[in-house]
Amino acid sequence: MSKLKFKAGLCAFAFALAFFAPHADARAPQARGWRRIVPMRSTRAEVLRRLGKPRRGNATYSSYEFEGEEDARIDYADGKRCSAGGEWRVARGAVLRVIVRPRRVPALHLTDLNLDMRKFRKEEGSGDVQARTRYTDEAAGVTYEVFEHGSGPESGQVMSIEYGPTARDKRLRCTRAR
Q: Would you tell me how many other CB atoms lie within 10 Å of the CB of residue 44?
């Protein structure tokens, strides 16, 4: 009888592992993407179901505006694979990235997000965008572009949030012959 219990327990464990393993990434906040639209996993059809018809767009992008909240641009794969000059090994219509521009009053500041800044690489702006700094967490595939100039109320304001491929998704990038 104990062998039967062991086999039943083993089967239950195998089932749980098979069911929950593909969803393990979904626990991380950035892995859920924006409004459950996840680059390299979501498709144009899913975006249309979740958000409806875009305000503007074409075959490679959709643009949405949400009253008083935020604007979003979603870029899609054009279907060209590596051999046809494409950048990613994903199907046509796969979401490549989502760029969100918050429009909140009061403004959204980086400190409002309570992020673990040790996970982020900081890139100072240069030239015309000198006052903008990009904070990128490559593992999660998220970048915050922040206005950082002086000490006024605009300093630290989040200008955009970009959800893109994660570090694990880099395997899907096409390699170019040199």
A: 20
- Count the domains in the chain: 1
User: Can you tell me the distance from the alpha carbon of 119 to that of 144, in angstroms, rounded to the nearest whole number?
Assistant: 12
Q: Has residue 9 been placed in a domain?
A: no
- Summarize pLDDT for 103-122 with one digit per residue, the tens: 877 788 888 889 999 999 99
64-91 per-residue burial string, b: 16 or more CB within 10 A, e: under 16: beeeeebebbbbbbbeebeeeebebebe
> Domain range holding 133?
23-172
Contact 33, 39 (CB under 8 A): yes
Residue 78 within any structural domain of the chain: yes
The model's pTM: 0.76
* Strand ranges for 30-94 from DSSP E: 56-57, 61-66, 70-76
